[in-house]
Amino acid sequence: MNQHIHTKSSHMKESLQNAKQELKRADHLIFVSLKYTRTVDVIKSIIERLINCLDQVMNALLNHAKEQKKITELPTLARIKAEVCKSLYAHDPTIQNYIAFYQLLRKIDKAQFERTQEYRRHVTMTAHLDEGHVELTIDIIQDYFHRTKEFIIYVEKLLIGEHEQQ
To answer: In a structure prediction context, what are the per-residue pLDDT tens digits for the chain, which is 166 residues long?
Structure first.
C-alpha cells in the first residue's frame, strides 16, 4: 500500500520538478538572453516559459486533488485546468490570485502586440487585450518571473508540507 501512495505523490513531485526546470529556463532567458539581446522575441519566450511553469504547478495541484479523491481525472486543456484549480482551491486567495495571473499571461501570449525600443534597455512589448493594453518591459518580466517562483514555493509548501505531516 505504501508503494502505491508513493507513486501517486511522485506525479505531484514530478510536476513541481518540471515547473522548476521551466523556471530555470526562464531565468536564463531573463538574465542572459534578454540582458544581451533586448528583443520582444525573448520577452515572448519568457512568457511562454512562465506559462509552462505555472501549468506544471497546476498539474501538481490537480495530481494532489486526484490523490485526495477530490477529482477523478486530470483535465488536459489549460482553460479547464485553471477552472478546476479555481474551484478546488476556492478557499485559498493566494491560489486564486496566481490562477488569475496565469490566465493573464495566456491572454498576453495570444494577443496581438507591438515592439518598441528593441535592442535598448527599455525594450517594450505592448500586448493588446480586450480589456486594454499591457506593456511588458525588462523590469515587469522580472517581476512576473519572481511571482512565478513564489507560486512554486507556495504550492510546494502547501503540498509537500501536508504530505510530511501525514
So the answer is: 334 444 447 888 999 999 999 999 999 999 999 989 999 999 999 999 999 999 999 999 999 999 999 999 999 999 999 999 999 999 999 999 999 999 999 999 999 999 999 999 999 999 999 999 999 999 999 999 999 999 999 999 998 875 554 4
The answer to whether residue 120 is domain-embedded is no
Number of domains in the chain: 1
For residue 67, report the phi and psi dihedrals to the nearest 5 degrees. Answer: -60, -40
Question: What is the separation of C-alpha 70 from the centre of its chain, rounded to a whole number of angstroms?
Answer: 22
Structure pTM?
Answer: 0.90
In a domain, 132, yes or no: no
Write a three-state SS string for 10-26: HHHHHHHHHHHHHHHHH
